[in-house]
Amino acid sequence: MVEKVSLQVWEIIEKARNEKTKKGKIETLQQHECWALKDLLKGTYDDIVRWNLPPGTPPYEPNKEESTPSSLHKHHKKFKHFVKGLAGDKLPGVRREKIFIDMLEAIHHKDAELIINMKDKENIGGGITKKLVQEAFPNLIQK
User: Fold this and answer.
1) Would you say 9 and 114 are in contact if contact means Cβ atoms under 8 Å apart?
2) 23-79 pLDDT, tens per residue?
3) At 100, phi and psi to the nearest 5?
4) Which sequence spans correspond to the domains of the chain?
5) 111 neighbors 8 (Cβ within 8 angstroms)
6) Which residues contact 113 (CB under 8 A, 6 or more apart)?
7) Rounded Cα distance, 45 and 5, in Å
8) Considering only CA atoms, which of 136, 135, 134 is closest in space to residue 46?
9) Cα dihedral: 95, 119, 117, 19 (round 10)
10) Bridge-partner residues for 128, per DSSP?
11) Structure pTM?
12) Measured between alpha carbons, how far is 107 from 113 in angstroms, rounded to an integer?
C-alpha cells in the first residue's frame, strides 16, 4: 500500500538507512513511495541518467532547517533541466546551474545533500544500493 506523502525525502532515506534488514529497507522505501523519492533513486543509480551539471558541490547557501520554504516533493520536477538529452540542453549552462542552485537553497539542507550526491552518482549509503532499489521498485532502473 502506498502511503500519502507525509515525510520529506531525506526522512524516508534516513528511515530506510536505519532499518536493520534488507527486507526492512525495501518495505520502508515502498511504504513511502512517491515521485520525488523515485526520481532521486533513479537519478542516483540509473546509468542512463547523465547529469548536465559540473561535478562537486556548487556554491550555494544551505537552507536552515527551521525555514525551509519548499520541499523536494515540489522541486523534483526541475530535474528535467539538469539531465542530458532533456529540456535543459537548450538552456545556457549558467542558467541551468542557477536553477539548480536556487532549488538547493529552497529545500531542506539534507535533501540538497542527497541531490548533489545524486548528480555525482554517489551511493546513498546505509545499505540503499542499486540492487536494493531494483528490488524495491523493479521497473524504475534500467538493468
Assistant:
1) yes
2) 999 999 999 999 999 999 999 999 999 999 999 999 999 987 666 668 899 999 999
3) -65, -50
4) 9-136
5) yes
6) 10
7) 22
8) 134
9) 130
10) 125
11) 0.91
12) 10
